[in-house]
Amino acid sequence: MFNHVTNLNLNYFDKTPIGQSTTRTISDIEAINTIFSEGSVTILADLTTIVFVLIVMFMTSAKLTLVVLAVFPLLIYGSIKFKESVRKSYEKVRNHISTMNSFLQERIGGMRIVQIFNAEEREAQKFRQINRDYTAANLKAINAYAIFFPVVDIISALSLGLMVWYGAGGVLSEEVTIGTMVAFPLYITMLYRPIRMLADKFNTLQMGLIAAERVFKLLENNDMVQNTGTLAPQRLKGSVAFDKVWFSYSGDIENDVVLKGVSFDIPPGKTLAIVGSTGSGKTTIISLLGRFYEIQSGSIRIDGHDLHEYDVFALRRRIAVVLQDVFLFSGSVMENISLRDPGITEAQVIAAAKMIGAHAFIERLPGGYQYQVMERGATLSMGQRQLISFVRALVFNPDILILDEATSSIDPETESVIQFAIEKLIARRTSIIIAHRLSTIRHANNILVLDKGEVKEFGPHDALLEIEGGKYRELYEKQFLKAEAL
Ligand SMILES: Nc1ncnc2c1ncn2[C@@H]1O[C@H](COP(=O)(O)OP(=O)(O)OP(=O)(O)O)[C@@H](O)[C@H]1O
Ligand SMILES: [Mg+2]
What we know:
By secondary structure, the chain is α/β, with parallel strands linked by helices. Helices cover 60% and strands 12% of the residues. The protein has helices at 2-7, 10-15, 18-60, 62-69, 72-109, 111-116, 120-172, 178-219, 282-289, 312-317, 333-338, 346-356, 359-364, 382-395, 412-426, 438-441, 461-466, 471-485, and strands spanning 240-247, 259-266, 271-276, 297-302, 305-306, 319-322, 331-332, 372-373, 400-404, 430-434, 446-451, 454-459. Strands 6-9-10-3-11-12 form a six-stranded mixed β-sheet, with helices on both faces. Strand 4 and strand 5 (305-306) form a beta hairpin. Helix 5 (72-109) packs antiparallel against helix 7 (120-172). Bound molecules: adenosine-5'-triphosphate and magnesium ion. Magnesium ion binds at residues 282-283, 324, 404.
């Protein structure tokens, strides 16, 4: 399951709560497991008992057995009804478990916001509601049991009554022996006990089957990157070309378009800065380069080859992306940088950290490179996380470097550290920088001004400033100059 989930397209993660995926991989799998550990063997034993008791009954007296079985249609009908109702309830139960996990996962992850905005009481209330729904679904299933078991008891009593009534007549007409009359009530008890037990096992079985259905549904989700390309170059020269790229996250190019015919070229080794207002599609452009999403029309070429001609994993290996929001895993700083790639030695990590200018601060952490980063890097500052992510990108020695600059403003001292690091990162390789600060933009050979998914202006800094009433000039005067002044 985990393997499958790791290979799914990012689209899946955009649309699925994390809690739902973890429920599938943990609690649903556990429910399936109980089918085998608790359900299947006892069910087999019960079924065997039923078959053997029936054989013995038939051998003793076929007529009496048929009389006993006369009520079975009733039993089968009752069982089917019971099964349906339990199934519905358990489907709800599994749904509610998934909702509860998603809720908990999200609130615990976002506890800081919950506490900052005093939302504890409201969140607790919402949780109580989810809990109540969960209880209600379970109670429904229990109700079904509460009705079904007495019904089985009544049917079994009916069996016994019929048998006594018919058997008494048989004894009188000497068709049935007294011995049979003594043995049959015992057989009936032996027959109904496993039937009752079987119904009880429905519980485990139903839960497991419903969980299995969900797990299979996820396993059948083949929304994975179609890796049909064969090109796997050891190194890329690094020319990047977008040609009339149209893209929509939902695939609905008519109503929900994000990029509208974006075209640009970056020669090998050059730097492109992308600027534009928030939501204009800057991050989207760079997600397309590693084929994390598929475009609807147009083409993207690297070194003259369409992205689809490349083996996608070979391609991703040559492109490093530093994201806007840095993600760190729990583990040491060393592991966070190398991501446990066996091809990366500690010496390489340290060399890269020195080059970026992160070595000094990492050394000062308790334990240095072995400092244990907490989940999401919670114990490190933003700037520190950023530097670690820079080292992570540099140590992979990519041919194309993509940097989605964090929007948060930083103090001048850190700014110069980060600036230094960025210069090291982009040196001698093709780079795309989504820039929010003038100091970064100044290093770019070309600047692309994006507005609502369209390229408005493209060219070097000085040329763009010349354009009367141009977007870049406006941005420069309003945003960058002001920031510089501050
Ligand atoms: N994963 C996603 N699924 C669906 N729509 C998305 C997704 N990510 C972004 N969008 C939408 O695409 C548009 C462009 O988003 P994008 O993240 O590319 O903006 P941006 O230019 O990087 O903005 P910012 O400067 O704030 O980072 C936005 O309207 C956004 O709502
Ligand atoms: Mg962005």
